[in-house]
Amino acid sequence: MAPQTPRLTTTFALILSLLFLASTTCYAHNITRILAKHPAFSTFSHYLTVTHLAAEINRRQTITVLALDNAAMSSLLAKNLSVYTLRNVLSLHVLVDYFGAKKLHQITNGTTLTATMFQATGAAAGASGYVNITDLKAGKVAFGSEDNNGKLDAVYVKSVEEIPYNISILQISQALNSAEAEAPTAAPTLNLTAIMSKQGCKAFSDLLIASGAKSTFEENLDGGLTVFCPTDTVINGFIPKYKNLTNAQKVSLLLYHGIPVYQSLQMLKSNNGITNTLATDGANKYDFTVQSDGEDVTLETKVITAKITGTVKDEEPLIIYKIDKVLLPKELFKPAPAAAPKAAKAAATADGPKADAPTDDSEDQTVADDENGSISKMEGERFIMVLLSMCLGVILF
Ligand SMILES: *[C@@H]1O[C@H](CO)[C@@H](O)[C@H](O)[C@H]1NC(C)=O
Ligand SMILES: *[C@@H]1O[C@H](CO)[C@@H](O)[C@H](O)[C@H]1NC(C)=O
Ligand SMILES: *[C@@H]1O[C@H](CO)[C@@H](O)[C@H](O)[C@H]1NC(C)=O
Ligand SMILES: *[C@@H]1O[C@H](CO)[C@@H](O)[C@H](O)[C@H]1NC(C)=O
Ligand SMILES: *[C@@H]1O[C@H](CO)[C@@H](O)[C@H](O)[C@H]1NC(C)=O
Ligand SMILES: *[C@@H]1O[C@H](CO)[C@@H](O)[C@H](O)[C@H]1NC(C)=O
Ligand SMILES: *[C@@H]1O[C@H](CO)[C@@H](O)[C@H](O)[C@H]1NC(C)=O
Ligand SMILES: *[C@@H]1O[C@H](CO)[C@@H](O)[C@H](O)[C@H]1NC(C)=O
Fold first, then answer.
1. Annotated region Disordered: where (predicted)?
2. Domains of the chain, earliest start first
3. pLDDT of residue 198
C-alpha cells in the first residue's frame, strides 16, 4: 500500500467535513450574527435572544424581520412588558413571508395583510397577528397591526440585510402597537415531571422527584433547558447500580442528564463537541461529547455512548429527548478501556462504580489521546483557513 494512503484518507475526510460544515456554517442564517454587524440594532438583537425568538427565526426560511433600532426599542421597553409578553410583541415583527425592499414597494393593489410569527404560534386570536403593509404616496411604505383600528403606526426606514429568499431584515420606524400582543402573558406552564411521566420517561421523572434534582431542572426552565431522558426500561435496568450511589452522587448523575440551554436537534447536529451539563461544577467537569453520525446524534461520555432515539417535547425554551442508555459520567464510573489490548485487563471493572476501582495511569493516557481528536492543531488551522475561503467562494490549493 502506498505510504500516502492514510494521508489521502484524512484529507478526504477533511474535505467531507468541510462540505458539511460549509453548508451549515456559511448558508444557514443566524439573525444574531447578522445583527452583530449593525450596532444600531444591538438591543433588538439582545431581546430576540432573551425571548428565544432568535432560534425560532434561524429555524425558519422565507421570513422578514421588521427590525427596531435602539431608540425604538427603548420606547418599547419603557412599557415594562414581561419577557413573555415582549416575545409576543417581537414575534409580531417577524413576517412569515419574504419582503425585500423591492417587493415592498410593488405590492399588488398597494396594500396587503401578511401573517406573522405571532399568528403562526397560535398565541393570537382572530385577525390579530396579521400586519397590514400599505404603499403610500411619495414612495413611503406604512405598517400597522391588523388589530390597531386601521392605524398604520410605523413606516419603512431602510433595508438592513437581504438574503433572497431566506431572510430579509428591514428597519421600521417604531414598534407596531397591538393590544392583543401586549396583553399580559403568564409564563408558559411547563410541568416538567408531568410532561415526562406521560411520555415514557416516568421512571426518570420519579428519580428527579425522589432525589430533589427536579428543582435544579425547573430553575433552568426560563433560560432554556435540554433534558436527555433514559427511557423507563433503561432506568429500571439501571436501578441496582443507582442504589449503590450516595445521595450526592445520585443528584450529580441526574443533573448530568440536563444542559442549561435549549438545543434543538439541528443545533446539536451542527454544534458537535464537548458540552457542560447541570452537574458541571468547577473541577468536576461532568461533561460529554455530542457527535452526529448521519441522522443519528450520540452522546459520548468516557464510559458509554448513548443515542438520541426520539423527542418527547420541543417547546422552546424546553426540549426533552429520549436516549437509549443512562449517561455514566467518568466522575462516578470507571472509563471504558479505549484500546483493544487493554480491554481484557479492565473488563471486570468497566461500568462499575469508580470508588472501589482505582484508576490506572496508562488508561488515563489512552483517554487523553482520544481527547485531542483526529485533527491536530496544524491541520485544524488549515481546516479553518480552507473553510473561510470556501465561505468566500474561493478555494486555493
Ligand atoms: C437559503 O437557504 C437554503 C437552505 O438552507 C440554502 O440552500 C441556500 O443556499 C440559502 N440561500 C442563500 C442565498 O444563502
Ligand atoms: C449565532 O451567532 C451567535 C453569535 O455569533 C452565536 O453565539 C450563536 O451560537 C449562533 N447560533 C447558531 C445556532 O449557530
Ligand atoms: C416601568 O418601571 C419603572 C421602574 O420600575 C417605572 O419608573 C415606570 O414608571 C414604569 N413604567 C410604566 C409604563 O409602567
Ligand atoms: C386587486 O384588486 C382587484 C380589483 O379590485 C382584485 O380583483 C384583485 O383580487 C386584487 N388583488 C389582490 C392580490 O388583492
Ligand atoms: C390596510 O390599512 C389601510 C388603512 O387603514 C386600509 O385602507 C387597507 O384597506 C388595509 N389593507 C388591507 C389589505 O386590509
Ligand atoms: C406537576 O404535575 C404533577 C403531577 O404529574 C403534580 O403533582 C405537580 O404538583 C405539578 N407541579 C406543578 C408545579 O404544577
Ligand atoms: C454495589 O457495590 C458493591 C460494593 O462496592 C459491589 O459489590 C456491587 O457489585 C455493586 N453493585 C452494582 C450493581 O454495581
Ligand atoms: C493533546 O494536545 C495538547 C495541546 O495541543 C498537547 O500538549 C498534548 O500533548 C496532546 N496529547 C496527546 C496525547 O497527543
1. 344-373
2. 1-28+364-397 (no CATH), 38-182 (2.30.180.10), 192-359 (2.30.180.10)
3. 83
